[in-house]
Design brief:
By secondary structure, the chain is an alpha/beta fold. It has four domains: 120 residues, 3-Layer(aba) Sandwich (Rossmann fold), CATH 3.40.50; 95 residues, Alpha-Beta Plaits (2-Layer Sandwich); 123 residues, 3-Layer(aba) Sandwich (Rossmann fold), CATH 3.40.50.720; 84 residues, Regulator of K+ conductance, C-terminal domain (Alpha-Beta Plaits). It contains 14 helices and 21 strands. It has a six-stranded parallel sheet with strand order 3-2-1-4-5-6, sandwiched between helices. Strands 13-12-11-14-15-16 form a six-stranded parallel sheet, sandwiched between helices. The longest helix is centred in the first third of the chain and has 14 residues. The radius of gyration is 23 Å and the shape is globular. It starts with a strand and ends with a helix.
Amino acid sequence: MNIVICGAGQVGSYAAEQLAAANHNITVIDSDGDRLKRIEDTLDVGTLQGNCAEAWILREAGCADADLLIAATDRDEVNLLTVSLAKGVGARRTIARVHHRAYFENQGLDYLKHLGIDRMICPEYSTAIAIAQTLRNPGALAIENFARGRIEIQEFEVSPEAPAIDVPLSELTIPRGTLLLALTRNKYVFLPDANTALKPGDLAILAGNSDTFQEARRMFHNEKLSRSDVVIMGGPALAVWLCRSLRGRNFAIRLFETDRARAEELADKLDWVTVIHADPTDPNIFAEENIANADVFVALLDDDEQNILGSAWAKSMGVKETIVLVQRPKYLHLYKNVNIDRSFSPRRVAVTEIERVIDERPIKFMASLAKGVLDLFQVDVGPNSEILNKPLKDVTLAPHWIITAIRRGDDVRVPGRDDDVRAGDTLLVAGQHGMESKLKSIFGIG
């Protein structure tokens, strides 16, 4: 595949490294000759010095014959203009990296449609969602960015006094937009049907739209949840995304920011968060704020060394779990050696998203819900599917498969019984391991 990458910064250079290793033909454009020299010294890729927001530069880089152009400079406006020009020059598909919420959420305008962009990625947002999924439920089964955080899948134990105990699913009024995917009982994993009744101690896998998920979860697990104490060090855009993802989910959040102006801005923007103008790794502040008893310490500074050292120190002082943001690859191997629990890298998240765009297979493995037993797939519905335009209540996929989510344009949701499947939809489908070939005939994939 011929790929043009605009921007040789952290995301662009890492994308070039990973995609070149996968035997794609890569050309990198950047106005900084020193950045390009570093890439030339380490990678077998083409380079071109110039402004990627100029059509003639794109043509010279081979954009007219490119299967994909990735605009990954540090400036959103340059990236948006570049992908629009690239489509005009002849690139088959385009990806724009953005930072600002206004662009990513299409506030005021559908930028994707207006500029002809195939995909917009925001590594900071995606990283925040990944961290939030980890914090919301340690057993959470992430759907990555299939629905930009609008759908959740979690696994949890059915509590003894839950309203759903001993009631057949056909008689339960589960909130619309939620779906019981699977149960584990006595180590046996199965897809439930209308006659299934839950028992205390069952492990349930529940999927649901984010706005109704918690209500549905209480039907199966109604024990009172204690609030988790989360300490965030640093207030970049990623911290804002993370706080928004945790809002209203039994989290008490304290965000520490050393820049007063930024702290005041965050306090106005995040009125459900306690914003403190201080350094949480200052021993006096650490003791005064009783941070040692925090459940989670999340380090989100732009400085990798400070993140790692601060988190390692917090862990040594008693914090239960520590999470670090790491930008540069040379630090990724260090976190386990200093007793840090998890690390997240926005550039790795970005490249993972890019790789999914490149992967044009109509059926893609997403995750294992129960290893060797139950898998989750993304399926692009073909025009000859045998279930097109039929209400799901009239479609028989069980006992092998269940449609977990439907993405149609910008609309993503867990379907109800009256929803249908249409050609061009992208589905999230859960089903028995080892029966992937059956999906091709069901969904009209040649």
